[in-house]
Amino acid sequence: MFVSSLLLGGLFYHHPLVAVPLIALVALLYWLVKHNYKFWEIDGVPYPKPSLLTGNLGPSLALKKHISELASDWYNAYPDKPFVGYFKIFTPAIMVKDPVLVKNILSRDFDCFANNDFLLDVRQDPLLSHDPFLVTGERWKRSRSLLTPSFTGAKIKQLFPVMESVADAFVTFIGRHVAQELEAKEIAARFTTQNVVACTFSIDGDCFGEQESEFRRMGRRVFETSPMATVKTMMAVFLPTVAKYIPVPFLLKDVDEWIRSLVANLIIQRSASEKTVQEDLLQSFLKNREKSNATQTEITAHALTIFLEGFETSSVVLGFTLYRLAKSPEVQQNLYNEVKKRIDANGGQLDFDALQQLEYLDWVMLETLRMHPPAATMHKVCTKKYIMRKGFRDEQGHDMSIYVREGTPILIPVLAIHMDPKYYPEPHQFDPERFSPARKVTHEGATFLPFGEGPRMCLGMRFAQAQVKLAMVKLILNYRVTVGPNDKPFAIDSRSFVYQARDGLRIVFERR
Fold first, then answer.
1. Where are the transmembrane segments (predicted)?
2. For FRET with 380, which of 80, 343, 351, 507 sits at 20 to 30 Å CA-CA?
3. What CATH topology corresponds to 66-511?
4. Helix intervals (H) in 148-246
């Protein structure tokens, strides 16, 4: 401040005609920002104190805290409030805490919050602009309609033999690394990548070899960005109106060219072949091509969507499930007992129907998703003016319902809701039986959101659950898992938009 004062003083002394307007402009901007930060105070909405240049997002912008941790701080600071205001840089935004309001936003009043708060330029990212998570309006409806047939229960059941073959190869891979310390998410990503590639393209992804495969390398490349793309990604989440003016794509050029070449070559091969083609997910797109009038760009884009969303988030869930079982030997033994009993009763065979009947396995996965949801926050935007539900009152008895303006960002703190003891007693305890019929408590509204809710609920939910559960069954039948010698409490990776451990999760497999 002292140096700034000297500089302004020198400027005023030597160039008064320049200094006066400049100082006036700075003063005006300062006043506008400070006045803007009174937005929620004027509306009578509680809010954490913002910083001058970053609003309430400073710790996340500085990569000191994951956005889910920041949201949890606000959530816990206002325990009895249904919603809290905050500032997304300079933009007034709302974090919705009350489960009924959350359910209304995601389901009942979906038409007022139809879009996710993420701007994508179709010209700069022609493939990502068909991802139903990222797009809006009619483009979202079309993308969802084209992808939906690929994720029905019948389709997943049809793919089950392929998935089981991959899971068996995964067991063999782990067998080569028994008694070695492994990173849970990395080995999980090998399995999910191999499985998604097999189910989508009928290709051996070579993910269980000693050398990094092309598909694992490209899977990593998708989440790597150029320096400018990194800036744009941050802006897309925290300041979308600025992001659209940064003329760089999110998807790296070599990844774009790779997936286009892969799909184009497969289409040519299948068109020229007289052999019966495997009914994989790509073939489903091709069979429906005439009916849907899908372009090759759309087919390529949806293949990319399945590849990305099929391996990354599922690997997070599988990795955390293995880690939680490693730290909970009793839960692990209970799971083994259930799986062994079911397989024995099924003649030693595992099929799709038997997998669905493993109740304790469901509880284990649901509890992992509660404690470690890959999408630990949801980001929506108000698309129509909206009165947020009446009936909430502050300490003075005043009505807390508010008018939400079109364009207002909405944050749903998934992790904070999942860790609220009002809904989940002893939330830091890994307790799968909280999801058992005997103990499960149903709360009004939405209190369990690992896959979202409503029309934008995760399309690949069934596929993700099937591949994670199948991998768990195969592993638990053959191995015990324990924490590695270098295990330590993990921190959430503030550099990642997906909830994951910053320095990995260390585990060791032992043969049964």
1. 12-33
2. 80
3. Cytochrome p450 (1.10.630)
4. 153-175, 184-201, 214-222, 227-238, 240-243
Q: What is the pLDDT of residues 135-149, one digit of tens each?
A: 888 889 999 998 998
CA 49 to chain centre: 28
Q: Is 458 annotated as a binding residue?
A: yes
Which of 105-114, 244-253, 489-498 is most confident?
105-114
Residue 260: both structure tokens together: 């286009």
Give yes or no for a contact between 447 and 104, defined as CB atoms under 8 angstroms apart: no
Beta bridge partners of 277: none
Q: Are 380 and 116 in contact (CB under 8 A)?
A: yes
Is the four-CA dihedral 404, 115, 136, 454 of positive or negative sign?
A: negative
Residues constituting the chain: 512
pLDDT tens digit sequence for 422-478? 999 999 999 999 999 999 888 899 999 999 999 999 999 999 999 999 999 999 999
- Token digits for 189? 């990503």
Yes or no: say if 454 and 106 are a contact pair by the CB < 8 Å rule: yes
Among 432, 436, 466, 463, CA closest to 355: 466
- Domain ranges in the chain are 66-511
